[in-house]
């Protein structure tokens, strides 16, 4: 609405100067209109350039993610590709649901919208957690009130992106973070019978030790521990295969 007021005041100012013949009234009316024009133009500039009448709105979204690798593998896999050399920004490949058949890339820069693309920063970290998750923190401009939006809105100022920070967190003991080249290398590695037997023996030994330390552990707890131990030992074997 304000932009239309500026247009109307500009037209009215020009009209008062050119059409009113009485000098006193011409300068009086045009002076008042000019002051109103300058004031409304200032408010318009303050709104469009400095976001006057708006405030920053931040939303945080958490979501569990799933391995980019085979569901048959006890180890989780995140494929990450850094954009540039030292940008700290990544494109990451993972599944968004447990029943997804194919992993997809996420946080690929939108080359058709460079202005917003540079505001997105996606990275990852490995931590002592049990589930892989993604945390997306989005900050955008929002109107303080409906009246402010009605009077000051110009174009698509509402929901204009300020920043988007993405952090993917994966369990450091049971997940691998690899490049696409490393993932391809692992896909070509064949597990030998000796390695499989070595893994089986190590798991049996760890389970025996766990039961001794936790004699009251139920079958469900033992299976949960065995699943965790299998994933950890598998990750160690895969890391060794990459060396």
Helix content: 40-55%
Question: Helical element count?
Answer: 7
Topology pattern, helix = H, strand = E: HHEEEEHEEHEEHHH
Query: How big a fraction of the residues is strand?
Result: 15-25%
Radius of gyration: 31 Å
The domain count comes to: 3
State the separation between the terminal residues, measured CA to CA: 65 Å
- Count the E strands: 8
Anisotropy-based shape: elongated
Give the integer mean of the pLDDT values: 88
Main sheet makeup: 4 strands, mixed
**Class derived from helix and strand content:** alpha/beta
Q: Which secondary structure elements does this structure contain, and how are they paired or packed?
A:
Blueprint: H1 2-19, H2 23-50, E1 54-64, E2 76-82, E3 90-94, E4 104-106, H3 114-117, E5 120-127, E6 133-143, H4 146-152, E7 161-171, E8 175-178, H5 180-187, H6 193-213, H7 219-242
Parallel strand pairs: 2-8, 5-7
Antiparallel strand pairs: 1-6, 2-3, 3-4, 6-7
Helix pairs in contact: 1-2, 6-7
Q: Can you offer a commentary on this structure?
A:
The chain contains 7 helices and 8 strands. It has 243 residues and is an alpha/beta fold. The protein has 3 domains: 2-50; 56-146 and 153-177, no CATH class; 189-242. It has a 4-stranded mixed β-sheet. Strand 2 (76-82) and strand 3 (90-94) form a beta hairpin. The model has no long low-confidence stretch (mean pLDDT 88).
